[in-house]
Amino acid sequence: MIDLNADLGEDDSPAGIARDIEIMDIVSSCNIACGGHAGSPTTMRTMLATAKSKAIAPGAHPSYPDRAGFGRQSMEISLTDLRISLNKQLACIAALASEGGIALTHIKPHGALYNDAQDDPELSALLIDMATETGLALVGMPGSLVQQKATQIGIGYVAEAFIDRRYSNNGRLVPRSEEGAIIADEGERVSQGLALAKGTAFAAHDGSKLTVKAQSLCLHSDSDGALESAKQMRLALEKAKIMIGPVG
User: Is residue 140 part of a domain?
Assistant: First the structure.
C-alpha cells in the first residue's frame, strides 16, 4: 500500500483551482495550504469540500508566515511567534473543516519549515506539540528527528518521499536553489516514484545509489506538468499492482 498526496490550495487562480480539483481524482490524500505561505478561507473551503466529495484524506499544510516568499526560505522567527502563527493556521482550517463536517487526518509542514524541522531539535519538538494537541498524524521525511520523536511518544507518523525532487546521498532533499534539484522529466519522476514505492534503490543527485523507505509519495501540484505526471504515476503504480490509499 502506498499513499499518493498532493499539496493543494496554493494557487487561487481559476486554472490553479481547477488543476487541484482534477488532481484529487488521482491522489489518496491532500495537504491544504492554510494561510502561512498561501491559501485563504475560500480556497480552504473548496479544497476541503472537494476532498470530502472524492473521499480522500485531507490534512493541514502550515508554513512559516511567509506569503511573499511562498514559505520556501528559512525564517529568523522566535519559537513563540512561530507557534502562535502555526496555531492560528491550524485553528483556521480546523474551524472550516468542522463547519463542513470534515475530519482532518494529518499535518504536513510546508517548504522551508518542513526541511528545517527534520533535523532541528526545537522545531521538531514544536511539530510534535502541534500533533499532540490536535491529535493529528505528522507527515515528514523518513529517518528524521521528527519521526524519531513521534515514534518515541506514539504519535502517528507518515514517512513521505518526493517523485519530482532530487535527493542528496544522506536522504535529504537537494535545495531548490541548486541546479537539477527539480526533476523535470516525466519518465524520471515516474521511475523514481516506483523505486520509492517499492523501497528499491534510485540515483541520488551525486550519482550514488540511495534507498528511501516511504509510506506516501508527494506530487507537487505547482511543478510543470504536475497533473500529467500525477496521472502517469498512478497508472505506473497500478500496473505494478501496488495498492493506493491513505495511510492509517
Answer: yes
d(CA 35, CA 4): 23
Tally Cβ neighbours within 10 Å of residue 107. 26
Give the number of domains in the chain: 1
DSSP 3-state of 38: coil
- Residue 244 falls within a domain, yes or no? no
In a domain, 64, yes or no: yes
Judged against a pLDDT cut of 70, whether residue 242 lies above it is answered with yes
Helix (H, G, I), strand (E, B) or coil at 122: helix
Residue 61, SS3? strand
pLDDT one-digit tens code per residue, 158-198: 999 999 999 999 999 999 889 999 999 999 999 999 999 99
Q: Are 168 and 204 in contact (CB under 8 A)?
A: yes
What's the CATH code of the domain at 86?
A: 3.20.20.370
DSSP code string of 138-182? EEE-TT-HHHHHHHHHT--EEEEEESSB-B-TTSSBPPTTSTT-B
